[in-house]
């Protein structure tokens, strides 16, 4: 897999982690950062947490304060430049959804457990169109726009040079016919195609596999270059949540691992998907 240039949000997080490591190595803290930059406590915290871009002059000041060597300075400059780039266009939605998209763009890995539906990144257009139009509350033009945005998002992330993607699907997601038998067969065959990508792993948890800790709860882990920046995300009909608390994220991580343990292997999953598609 080729090396991914970090997205702006990811570059900020990586730069914050680098600065935090450099500060710790020389025994500096936020109070030192605040005095060196003559800034407020909130600004110092956001800089060291990777939540904001860093002004070039401020970055030089911090690197001097932290006694950074040439290699660290070069890495910091690279990340600072990447953080200033314009983020890819994302579909409209809530501010929370926009934050989720940013964490997707910066992720080195995305792990998703789904119960009833094929995850959005894997959906073919006919499948996505049926879901977006199901409520009857969107016009055909709005549905078309959302489908196009999802297609662009998938093209960026589901690719040979994208992040490592691991999807675990409950068997219900394979049998719930969205758009009828023809659409569902195309969708399942698409999953088999995607399984061949070096960055994609798809597994199905059979009904007969028994109880596991993730049963009944769909969620996604957005894995960042710095583990402390990992996020968990879930959504329901009228509410969604992006979780950053490490203990909670670790809980989701353990539940995803349990789902993997109950799932078919990727090869067996592809064989099973082909069998189901042939029956449709």
Automatic annotation (TrEMBL):
Residues of the DUF5753 domain: 99-273
InterPro entries in UniProt: DUF5753
Q: Report the domain of life of the source organism.
A: Bacteria
> What name appears for this protein in its UniProt entry?
Helix-turn-helix domain-containing protein
């Amino acid at each position: 897999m080729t090396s991914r240039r970090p997205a702006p949000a990811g570059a900020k997080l990586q730069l914050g982690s680098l600065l935090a490591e450099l500060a710790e190595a020389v025994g500096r803290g936020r109070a030192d950062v605040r005095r060196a930059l003559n800034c407020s406590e909130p600004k110092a915290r956001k800089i060291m947490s990777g939540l904001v871009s860093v002004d070039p002059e401020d970055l030089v000041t911090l690197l001097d304060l932290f006694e950074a060597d040439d290699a660290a300075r070069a890495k910091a400059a690279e990340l600072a430049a990447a953080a200033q780039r314009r983020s890819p266009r994302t579909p409209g939605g809530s501010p929370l959804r926009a934050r989720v998209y940013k964490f997707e763009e910066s992720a080195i890995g995305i792990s998703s457990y789904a119960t009833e539906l094929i995850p959005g990144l894997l959906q073919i257009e006919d499948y996505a169109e049926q879901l977006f139009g199901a409520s009857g509350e969107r016009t055909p033009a709005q549905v078309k726009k959302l489908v196009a945005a999802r297609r662009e998002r998938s093209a960026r992330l589901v690719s040979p040079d994208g992040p490592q993607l691991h999807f675990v699907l409950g068997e219900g997601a394979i049998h719930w016919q969205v758009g009828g038998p023809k659409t569902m067969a195309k969708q399942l065959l698409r999953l088999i195609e995607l399984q061949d990508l070096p960055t994609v792993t798809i597994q199905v948890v059979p009904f007969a596999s028994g109880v596991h800790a993730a049963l009944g709860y769909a969620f996604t882990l957005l894995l960042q270059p710095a583990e402390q920046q990992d996020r968990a995300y879930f959504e329901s009909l009228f509410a969604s949540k992006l979780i950053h608390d490490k203990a909670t994220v670790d809980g989701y991580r353990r539940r995803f691992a349990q789902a993997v343990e109950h799932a078919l292997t990727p090869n067996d999953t592809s064989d099973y998907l082909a069998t189901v598609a042939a029956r449709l």
